[in-house]
Amino acid sequence: MTEIIVGIDLGTTNSEVAIVRGGRVEVIPVAPGVRILPSLVGVADDGSLLVGEAARNQYALHPERSVRSIKRRMGEYTAVQMAGKDYSPQEISAMILRRLRDIAEAHIGEPVGKAVITVPAYFSDAQRQATREAGEIAGLEVVRIINEPTAAALAYESCHSGARKALVYDLGGGTFDVSVVNLESDVVEVLASHGNNHLGGDDFDQKLITFAIDHLKAQHDIDIRPHAQAMARLQHAAEAAKITLSDEPYATLAEEYLFEKDGVPIHLSVEISRDDYEEMIEPYVAETLEAVHVALSGAGLTVADINEILLVGGATRTPLVQRRLESELGMQPRAEVDPDLCVAMGAAIQAAVIAGGQAPTVLVDVTPYTFGTSALEYFNGDMYPYCYVPLIRKNTPIPVSKSEGFCTVFDGQRQVDINVYQGEDPDALNNIQIGRFTIEGLRDAPAGNPLITTFSLDHNGILQVTSREKNTGLVHSITIDNAISRFTGDKLGEARHRIDALFRDQDGEEGRPGASVGAAPIDDSRRLRVEAGALIEKAERLLASAGTEDAEDLVNGIEAVKDQLGGPDASLKTAMDALADLLYYLDA
Ligand code: AMP
User: N or C terminus of the chain with fewer C-beta within 10 Å?
Assistant: First the structure.
């Protein structure tokens, strides 16, 4: 048996720990169903140490007893204050590493003494040394420090396919990095890196928040910006809408009882189309593309030298990001490994190799083919009714559901034919038609009546295609069984082989919904109520110094938590989260 070395992604906002067992890469859950540990530490009222979610929750109440984003300070000879005591950045990072070590030990049932830890490619020697020291303080021998893009390349197995050059594009919540890497016989070399430490998905949220604020001003003549609670809730609504827009052509920014004006409740409900949203975030995406070119010229390369693009970071799920990269670099970016977890997975792969094991493969269920429909669009300068519109791209992890908006072409058009194809050719007629249906009885409307078509592909290769008239909800759909294996000759065998392998392995993969997310044990429920009591107490303490409006929000938040103390855990947790957010926001 080889010794266990864990792989750790020690991130600015979130951290993860992964291992390789039985030839599989596992990202270890930090709580039931959760594999991401917020990179925050704090000291609780009773002097005990808080790490992760608990520290995040108390940050709002006690910033003086909490520390976040310590990664930005690594390598500085500075003291960070927490609960009146000075700590070095290494010591704070060590607390996160120690928690991850404990989580790994509890999961494996064996002591863990060694780790591979990832750092950004641009980290200096001092920053790397500080990271190594943090590991040692945490009781971990850091057997190797590797670059985050290197880890991503390992997770994508890029280095197994001969000499190649890859662009690793990493867009997280608050940071952006792009690296050009050279992959050759299992060695990954970072040739150049560029980025912006203050650009990410949070900026996309901010655009939607501004959009909602403008809407409320125009619709109700109110400015909610000074109201912390409403702003905290809007923040959540904006992020949720953003995530919806990654899969749907429209999203509704909605929050009931967001605000009260003259005793009348104001509900927020405003629809936004993906097109409008993309226009808002386009300047940010353009900035990242400029950085791509800076990194390329830093490496002395051109676009033509790049063999593949690897996506890292949650915000790379944004379709505009993927589309712009594809058109700028002329290839579909690879997105099949979970972008939030792939750095930790790569660290674990490196760790397994150092431990003397075989380099394992990250297994994901993906569709080997692209599915789409046809529409009337410009094709080689002319309008052509069979322009191919791909909805589910090949190598997308399954199950998956993607929607796209279309419009009627003629005034009074009462029906639309929906063709379903498998293939890659921009001319739909050159692809394989695997289904077709007609949606009839559309309302009598001018051209431009919107329809939403949704493709949902499940693990068994069953493709459901639905088309819905947006304004009436009229719906028609078909189900295509065995969509994935509807091929001929070699391709059929190849696809079947690949899918069989994926299904064989899927059962053992961790993190599948339902595996460990059952009902919370009694202890958790009791602990939740103890935490609720503490949260109420802290909020009540803050009341004394809060302004009138904030005080009103606080009282409402406290009452909502109290109301749920005797209710189900989930409702209590929702009320607690809202109150914790408010406290967090008041602090900011
Ligand atoms: P990371 O720092 O890699 O965990 O990335 C977090 C960022 O990714 C946050 O801004 C999230 O809101 C964003 N994000 C997560 N899922 C999606 C999604 N499906 N579409 C767009 N952004 C997402």
Answer: N
